[in-house]
Amino acid sequence: MSEKIQKVLARAGHGSRREIEAMITQGRISIDGTVVKLGDRFEPTMTKVRIDGHLVDLPSPAENICRVLVYNKPEGELCTRHDPEGRRTVFDRLPRMHDGRWVSVGRLDANTSGLLLFTTDGELANRLMHPSRTVEREYLVRVFGEVNEEMVRNLVNGVKLEDGMARFEDVQYAGGEGNHHTFYVVIMEGRNREVRRLWDSQGVTVSRLKRVRYGDIFLEKSLPRGGWMELPLAEVNKLRESVELPPETETVITVEKEKRKPKVQKIRRAVRRHEERVEEERSGRRKPRRGGKPTAAGAAGKTNGKPAGARQGGNRQNGRPNSSRPSKPRTRQ
Length: 333
Fold this sequence. Notes:
Number of strands: 19
Low-confidence stretches: 287-333
Shape: globular
Strand content: 15-25%
CATH superfamily of the largest domain: Pseudouridine synthase
Largest sheet: 9 strands, mixed
Structural class: alpha+beta
Mean pLDDT: 79
């Protein structure tokens, strides 16, 4: 049975569908010596697939293991694989893989911190990002300026931006004083700088933005900035079920590894050592390390405290409720 080429390559972990479609448009992908075009399909008889001239493996769906990482992105990191200026990217600290690669589920701009998901399954990434799936993204946002009830109603009812109408599904006040106010806001799509642009439309400026939830996945308060943790099989399958994908049957997490809880200070030191090594490699003071085990194999730690004041509509710290299941926030009227 034939499938679109971008779907096959995305499932094999060579990028999201959008990234692969861009590669096809640029003429970077060929199959059996023929450069492919958008709309071409992959047939079972096709054997040699190349990206930028390099032969790539296309394991069958049964051979792929869907893995999902939760990453706590610090401010200043870029959501790109390679930066020509040598700036740090979100891929620098992820565990290395021999087959396939990590695909980011959406992006966060350089000045935004918080939860970022990565997966080896490009189809899962595509569905989680697609607006038709209405997957909630929740942010902790601190704004500077006077905020009144009319502004909040505007943000919930909808505001016309340069790329169309946009709105928050939910706005919850979380405290503040003077002209500094903190809110939790929920959106259903991931347009470029959408949260910042919505607040800008009301004449207030976002001074801090942090994503605390993607779907039912919350940013754990024990996950330090720059640290990552891999989701166990049950959590991966909940995520897959939410976008109507069949359950995964295998995981790379062993029972012993799942029981072993990493120590906070140990993981923080590992993240710090990794940062120092990357800086040394980029400055030319030492040769890049090849192979070996990842430096931050898991994560635990503390985030930068909790927002001023209590969130209306739920008892919450750093974006995670006390209960094991997330509760849908109530819209402020």
